[in-house]
């Protein structure tokens, strides 16, 4: 594929790896968090970490939208799916996430009408095709996905589609990063910022990382050379004693974001005072609900949602993995009781989850000792 | 479920976007028929990137075009 190949050029990759080696102090250990699950997936798909010096450690952040959904929220979705007459729609990965007693896929096997959609627009189309049924869309995702839901709700309102509603579980990226930095568990040197979230929100919201925490950031694309170059940018900032937001993905990410998307999101959504994140607990103003103007399409107002809180299974250490405190292979059930075929925790479900990325690319144990 | 291939990452709910070439534009409904690198076609919401013309390449996430693709993302 023309152009894409250039971002996967192995020889150029080795050149950047050499520059990375030259930028690090040999007796210093560097911990850089890639925030986005898409980056985690690319790092293991392309073996990026094998090109890094042993004292540069990539820590996986909370940016997989499936992984951060707490079990109680999954149970709420399953309860809606079991409501008579409901067609429950969601993205593909979500159907396999275990709730406390079953997954949406299990609910489907029991007779619930659960359908996988590629986009919220597909869910709206199902609603228009089935006017006698109630169609609920389980909306998950960060700011990358929230505009799709917002535009769909706008369309539902404009076309007055009354049998469509949204169970909104959209989350925002800045509050969990702040929570991670306030946590005593983890010492991070810098961040590889999420490229497609930044396409919507811009690079500007990440300015708090250098300003308030003195941490360098490079907003990154998703190809192997993007990730290597972003790692180099963070390491060079550290070597120079700088801390700023650099935009490696400037070919797509504008500093101010997509203003049209931000405007539509602010019309359709409002911040929840609190939202529970798997492994991170309750974080204030970290998730979205529908604004009052769209209350009619809010599934949580239309149906009696149980709103249950469920503790994670004791064996599951997704919380520590999401915080970057442990590597997936350090979890007691990784690759044994918990596999992509039979996941216990969310991080093993989505291909963007750190556990699934490690498992799918054969990282069953620590392969190199940190100097 | 074919869009959600473990080997390629999940494009439906993650922080991923895929380049798609615009085949036909319906400006009034803010939709475009687009083709992905494998030639599969889908209807894409274009409200965030309008005006759009046939032949342009968009970065598409969950059925919505988030941005115009730069040279690095353009499939042949």
**Total number of helices of chain B:** 0
Helix content of chain A: 25-40%
Question: Which spans of chain A of ≥5 residues are poorly predicted at pLDDT below 50?
Answer: 367-371
Q: Assembly state here?
A: heterodimer
**How many β-strand runs of chain B?**
7
CATH class of the largest domain in chain A, named Alpha Beta
Quote the average pLDDT of chain A: 90
Q: Report the structural category of chain A.
A: alpha/beta
Domain count of chain A: the total is 3
Number of domains of chain B: 1
The CATH architecture of chain B would be Roll
Number of strands of chain A: 13
- Here the CATH topology of chain B equals SH3 type barrels
Shape of chain A: globular
Strand content of chain B: 35-45%
In short:
The complex is a heterodimer of chains A (about 375) and B (about 80). Chain A has about 375 residues and is of the alpha/beta class.
């Amino acid at each position: 594929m023309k152009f894409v190949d250039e971002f996967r050029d192995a020889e150029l990759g080795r050149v950047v790896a050499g520059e990375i080696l030259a930028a690090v102090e040999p007796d210093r250990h560097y911990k850089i968090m890639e925030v986005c699950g898409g980056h985690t997936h690319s790092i293991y798909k392309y073996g990026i970490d094998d090109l890094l010096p042993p004292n540069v450690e990539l820590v996986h952040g909370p940016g997989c939208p499936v992984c951060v959904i707490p079990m109680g929220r999954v149970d709420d979705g399953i309860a809606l799916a079991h409501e008579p007459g409901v067609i429950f729609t969601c993205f593909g990965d979500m159907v396999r996430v275990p709730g406390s007693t079953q997954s949406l896929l299990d609910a489907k096997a029991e007779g619930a009408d659960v359908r996988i959609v590629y986009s919220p627009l597909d869910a709206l189309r199902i609603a228009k095709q089935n006017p006698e049924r109630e169609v609920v869309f389980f909306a998950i995702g960060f700011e990358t996905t929230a505009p799709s839901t917002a535009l769909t709700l706008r369309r539902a309102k404009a076309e007055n589609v009354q049998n469509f509603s949204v169970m909104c579980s959209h989350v925002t990226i800045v509050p969990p990063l702040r929570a991670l930095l306030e946590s005593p568990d983890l010492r991070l040197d810098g961040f590889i910022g999420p490229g497609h979230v930044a396409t919507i929100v811009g690079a500007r919201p990440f300015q708090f990382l250098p300003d308030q925490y003195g941490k360098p950031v490079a907003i990154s694309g998703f190809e192997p050379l993007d990730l290597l170059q972003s790692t180099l940018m963070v390491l060079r900032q550290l070597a120079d004693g700088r801390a700023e937001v650099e935009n490696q993905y400037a070919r797509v990410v504008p500093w101010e974001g997509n203003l049209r998307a931000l405007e539509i999101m602010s019309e359709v959504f409002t911040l929840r005072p609190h939202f529970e994140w798997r492994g991170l607990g309750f974080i204030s103003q970290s998730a979205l609900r529908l604004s009052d103007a769209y209350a009619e399409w809010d599934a949580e107002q239309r149906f009696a949602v149980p709103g249950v809180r469920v503790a994670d299974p004791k064996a599951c250490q997704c919380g520590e993995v999401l915080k970057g405190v442990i590597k997936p292979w350090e979890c007691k059930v990784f690759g044994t009781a918990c596999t992509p075929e039979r996941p216990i925790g969310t991080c093993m479900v989505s291909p963007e989850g750190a556990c699934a990325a490690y498992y799918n690319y054969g990282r069953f144990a620590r392969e190199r000792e940190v100097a | 479920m074919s869009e959600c291939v473990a080997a390629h990452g999940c494009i439906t709910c993650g922080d991923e976007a895929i380049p798609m070439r615009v085949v036909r534009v319906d400006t009034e409904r803010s939709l475009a028929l687009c083709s992905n690198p494998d030639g599969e076609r889908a209807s894409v919401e274009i409200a965030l990137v309008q005006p759009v013309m046939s032949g342009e390449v968009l970065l598409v996430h969950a059925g919505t075009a988030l941005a115009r693709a730069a040279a690095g993302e353009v499939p042949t």
